[in-house]
Amino acid sequence: MNAKTPITLSGRPDFEAIAGWVKPGASVLDLGCGDGLLLKVLHQQRKARGYGIEIDDANVLACVQTGVNVIQSDLERGLAGFDAGSFDYVILSQTLQAMRRTEEIVLEMLRVGRQGIVTFPNFGYWGNRLQNLAGRMPVSKDLPYQWYDTPNVHLCTVNDFEAFCASHGLRILERIVLHGGRRVSLLPNLLGSLAVFRFEKA
């Protein structure tokens, strides 16, 4: 990875939040890492080291070409290849809603990592609710697919994820809810369109 050229994060405010949480020199596993942008950012800004897991051929090639350590694998098969406590952080960025075995992958994140970080579009955002009231499935910047071609199978809200953590013995360490790249403090489950959580085993 080239640490000399600054990497811009325009359009990915969740990456900025994640980078602020990861401690310098930490080990990171990025699940569904795409083209490796987040790992490059964490390496450049936090001197983090680690791996990405990605299934798409083009994204794997992009990672290899830019020096990102990547393993081509299907997340739905789990993380059995990694020992317990192998990483400081395991990250699942805007992929949670596309997982079929959501419960299993979140628990696996905290088996192989000391802390988990997830980001996901908040289905409770008022704009999504308004489209539902109009009788349509929501389409937005954070949910850009039509109902017939969406990869999203398990949409949830900020409140849903907090309830999930409570019922599975997970402690939420930090939460940032965003809209338009800005943090939302007032009524986040209604006014925020993107959620970022950092959590660990209670």
Describe the structure.
It is a single chain. The protein has a single domain (13-201), classed as Rossmann fold (3-Layer(aba) Sandwich). Helix content is 30%, strand content 25%. It contains seven helices and eight strands, in the order H-E-H-E-H-E-E-H-E-H-H-E-E-H-E. An eight-stranded mixed β-sheet has the order 3-2-1-4-5-8-6-7, with helices on both faces.
Strand order of the largest sheet: 3-2-1-4-5-8-6-7
CATH architecture, please?
A: 3-Layer(aba) Sandwich
Output mean pLDDT: 92
Q: Radius of gyration, Cα only, in angstroms?
A: 16 Å
**Which structural class do you get from the secondary structure elements?**
alpha/beta
**What overall form do the CA principal axes indicate?**
globular
**% residues in beta strands:** 15-25%
Q: State the helix count.
A: 7
- Cα(first) to Cα(last) distance is 35 Å
The name of the CATH topology is Rossmann fold
**CATH top level?**
Alpha Beta
Order of helices and strands: HEHEHEEHEHHEEHE
Unreliable stretches: none
Q: What percentage of residues falls in helices of 4 or more residues?
A: 25-40%
Overall structural domain count: 1
| CATH homolog superfamily | Vaccinia Virus protein VP39
Q: Outline the biggest β-sheet.
A: 8 strands, mixed
Secondary structure layout plus pairing:
Elements: H1 13-21, E1 27-31, H2 37-46, E2 49-54, H3 57-65, E3 70-72, E4 87-93, H4 102-112, E5 113-121, H5 126-133, H6 158-167, E6 170-179, E7 182-183, H7 188-191, E8 194-201
